[in-house]
Amino acid sequence: QVQLVESGGGLVQPGGSLRLSCAASGRTFWNYAQGWFRQAPGKEREFVAGIRWSGGTTAYTDSVKGRFTISRDNTKNTVYLQMNSLKPEDTAVYYCAINREGGILSSASRYDYWGQGTQVTVSS
Q1: I need a surface site. Which of 3, 69, 77, 89 has the fewest CB within 10 A?
Q2: pLDDT, average across residues 100-116
């Protein structure tokens, strides 16, 4: 079992920034991939960004390209999501997740471990 804990969410004005963190503990392996998903009220859970622990390969959904940056610190077993130029439509609960097979995939059903989520609210 892998435990994931998200932090860094909060209330921010449009155009502002937040940095989310996801710390992993338990049994982890070098070939894991970690992704960020978000879910707004009345909407499906959507893929936001992902990264491979070993090689640093990244992927982003089109709506956040150029604004969000995913990164990792392997020595701390932590993945970050730097969110800049935030928009009201970014408001959602953000979850981190791990795919043990190592692929950065957009389907939530392909991920094995999930955190509890952290709320991001973008509002004037």
Answers
A1: 89
A2: 93
